[in-house]
Amino acid sequence: MSTAPTPVGAELTPHTHVDPAHDSSKAWLLVIDPQVIFAEQSSDWASPMWEAAWANIERLAEAFEGRVILTRWIPTADRSTSWGEYFEAWPFADVPASDPLYDLTPEAAALGASHVIDEPTFGKWGTQLTAITGGSPRLVVAGVSTDCCVISTVLPAADSGAWITLVGDACAGSDQGNHERALSIMGLFAPQVRIATTNEVLSLG
Asked: Nearest CA to 6 among 64, 61, 62, 56?
């Protein structure tokens, strides 16, 4: 396991701000894809940042008890679409959704989440999520990977009118550079998307 980098949220000074509109007491904690395929270091898609991110996710989950949503990415997309080529490029991932690769990590499964949502797309914003949160929710977002499923969830949610607080040090990228680049891109969408640290979010609880 790689040593955890310094949380990036503190580096994005213009966007590292949480105001009362993003008060965690009125928000849902949305944890993107805390699954074996992204956490287990033997996986081709393991994030070297996962262990440090998970430590912060656990802290957040304690504060959001009863308001925690976990998601899973599952490999059920139509193979006649571009997803077919995607799975040809990553044959290790082209297994049934019941494969242990796609399980929640044991730690995530033990978190006692209010809801678990399965989607065959990188982005998790959609009718399953809004049926729980409403159409314009306040979401505190964490998870993996920053540069794929997290950004694919955050930007459509913000575009639909959700208030997003993205917890930079509770996200894990495919690597440190991609993590930083994804945070920088999402930070461009302030005030709909605000980048914060775990400590900043918890200070509002």
From this structure: 56
List per-block mean pLDDT (blocks of 10 residues) for the chain, which spans 205 residues. Answer: 34 37 71 99 97 98 96 98 98 98 98 97 98 96 99 99 98 98 98 98 83
Rounded distance between C-alpha atoms, residue 156 and residue 151, angstroms? 9
CA distance 37 to 77: 17
CA distance 108 to 50: 12
d(CA 195, CA 84): 34
Under a CB-based contact definition with an 8 Å cutoff, are residues 57 and 31 in contact?
A: yes
Question: Which H or E run contains 185?
Answer: helix 176-187
Tell me which residue of 124, 177, 181 sits closest to 149, measured CA to CA. 124
CB distance 102 to 37 below 8 Å: yes
Tokens of 66: 């009863």
Instruction: Please name each of the domains of the chain with its CATH number.
Output: 8-203 (3.40.50.850)
Calpha distance 102→151 (Å, rounded): 20
Per-residue confidence (pLDDT) for residue 205, from 0 to 100: 59
What's residue 10's pLDDT? 33
Q: Supply the pLDDT for residue 26.
A: 82
